Amino acid sequence: MKKKDYIKRAKKISKPFRVDGGKGFKLKHFDPDDTLNLKSEDKPKAKEALQDGIELLAELQDMLYAQDRWSVLLIFQAMDAAGKDGAIKHVMSGINPQGCQVFSFKAPSREELDHDFLWRCMKSLPERGRIGIFNRSYYEDTLVVRVHREILVNKRLPKELITKKIWDERFQDIRNFEKYLNRNGTIVRKFFLYVSKDEQKKRFLERIDNPEKNWKFSSADAKERGHWDEYMNAYEEMIRNTATKDSPWYVVPADNKWFTRLVVAAAVIDALASLNLEYPEVGEDKLKELSEAKKLLQ
Ligand code: ATP
Ligand code: MG
Predict the structure, then answer these.
(1) Whose CA is nearest to atom 15 of ligand 1?
(2) Is the CB of 199 under 6 A from ligand 1?
(3) Is 71 exposed, middle or buried (0-12, 13-18, 19+ CB in 10 A)?
(4) Is 178 touching ligand 1 by the criterion CB < 6 Å?
(5) Which ligand is nearest to the CA of 115?
(6) pLDDT value for 180
(7) Closest ligand 1 atom to 81 CA
């Protein structure tokens, strides 16, 4: 298959999950178990397609790096055990580590709490020519903080600023921030790995039963399940308010890991392909330098 056709295929696989306008967005229009009619017997083929995709991704990233103008920010959000880490690991496996930066955002430190909520993420934005990955992000400040309002109070915000409007204000700030990034040459793609409550339970039980996975289990994560519906509401509101044409969300079905990875890889390929990347052309001086160097070497 030609590169052009791979790129077309990537668009086709990722498009059904792309949300580039929030109006009327409902999570219930998506199914965590969706595989676009691919069956489990298609899994080997899907894995092959993923491998091809990863090779193409590496090629595009090489151009991104050489051109050194655009940068790409990929944001991953999800409930626990939805497979963020695995998706990041697989999709980025073919990429030159020099051109890629991953940051994980946990509960904020004292220093981080001493600043506005975008600050710690702002410091970690990808340089030109790089792909930056956020494993969680400033979106947590509209998710976990919304579900557990007491965190908001502990965040040392002046209390006059904690009003009913705070979530709308944050969404507006985020939209503006992402627009600002776009205008400065950073494109943003956001992924919500949408796992079902049942599948999460299965994965937690596996973490308990399998000694090699014990380390991954945290009873705090299991406790958060109690807030499932509140989280889903917060995710829905977040996507409805921050999905834009320039910075779309992808609601990626996450009950089947092989399919999640396929969709994420396809969306990243689509994003890079949209940039019309090219290797920089060298000027006449450089061409002369090259031919002189060749003579010398021969
Ligand atoms: P792992 O797979 O290792 O568990 P993780 O991303 O779940 O990865 P944790 O060490 O569990 O990492 O830490 C993430 C926790 O930090 C989550 O519960 C998340 O809700 C919380 N967190 C992230 N950002 C914020 C924030 N801005 N305010 C409060 N809590 C946050
Ligand atoms: Mg965790």
Answers:
(1) 106
(2) no
(3) buried
(4) no
(5) 1
(6) 98
(7) 2
**Does ligand 1 come within 6 angstroms of the Cβ of 255?**
no
Pocket test for ligand 1, best of 109, 119, 142, 144 (most atoms within 8 A of CB): 144
Q: Which domain holds residue 170?
A: 3-297
Q: What is the pLDDT of residue 41?
A: 85
**Is pLDDT at 246 greater than 90 in this prediction?**
yes
* 106 C-beta closer than 6 A to ligand 1: yes
Q: Residue 84 sits in a domain of what CATH number?
A: 3.40.50.300
Number of domains within the chain:
1
Give the ligand at the shortest distance from the Cα of 105: 1
Task: Enter the pTM of the model.
Answer: 0.95
- pLDDT tens digits for range 201-242: 999 999 999 999 999 999 999 999 999 999 999 999 999 999
- Per-residue pLDDT at 42: 87
